[in-house]
Amino acid sequence: MLDVRKLRLLRELAHRSTIAAVAEALSYTPSAVSQQLTALERETGVALLERTGRRVVLTPAAHALVAHTETILAALEQASADLAASRTVLTGALRIGAFPTAVRTILPPALVDLSRNHPDLELMVTELDPATVPDAIRTDALDIALLQEYDYVPAEPDPALETEHLLTETIYLAALDAEPLAARRDDSWILGTPGTLCHTMTVRACQAAGFTPRVRHHADDFSTVLALVSAGQGVALVPELGAMTRPPNVVLGALAARRTTHMAFRRGRGSHPGVVAARNALRASASAIGDGYS
């Protein structure tokens, strides 16, 4: 019978491409990962990896096995959820991941709701960039997290995850005047850290308007971004949640682009009582915030 732990390693290699990355993500040594994958090849009786120097590439048989692995892991998650549902009291750790603006806005009311209704739950919050959410959920570092996509940066589906829509926001151009985006070719720009979704979104939105932004500052906290705009240090694109406390001299110009936030959890885990409670609390909080700025 195939070993689920080895199958998880193969699945992560399909996502991360290198044995070193798999080892780092799952707290193994690279040699241990290699040994486990070699043992999996022996168990299956087929070649799963093609080795070229230091690189490994999954064979067609390996990709087929990864697809089966997603189904197997989802079934195990569903079994765990069914067992948890049989308990009368909701206990244990509930690990929630959220991006910074959600930690300040959506999450606090949800945490109050969860603490009041389920006092035996141990709530654990991690602030992280949405780009890292799929890996964190897939490797069981989080139970539920908020996943983002922008109109200019659509999210790639991950077969290990289930998602549920939570909130859609307008994207604003934040500046000291009301000039449109297309007129900002010569302005200085404030962008997020390279590699973040916010950075990619801004670059692509500007390119769609016919220019590449001239980056002057990098900042990931939208309060900091707006403070820099207020100080005349440049212009920026800011989503609705990040613009809720703008300085009085900052002008917000609504764009056609939107940011969408989804709740994400491992496939098969959506009916787990802890995840259900978190989904309900987050949905109620986001709805109240949406009513406040609509």
Automatic annotation (TrEMBL):
One of its GO terms (cellular component) is protein-DNA complex. CDD domains: PBP2_LTTR_like_6. One of its GO terms (molecular function) is DNA binding. Pfam families: HTH_1, LysR_substrate. Residues 2-59 form the HTH lysR-type domain. It comes from the Bacteria. PROSITE patterns: HTH_LYSR. Keywords: Activator, DNA-binding, Transcription, Transcription regulation. Belongs to the LysR transcriptional regulatory family. PANTHER family: LYSR SUBSTRATE-BINDING, TRANSCRIPTIONAL DUAL REGULATOR HCAR-RELATED. This is LysR family transcriptional regulator. It comes from Antrihabitans stalagmiti.
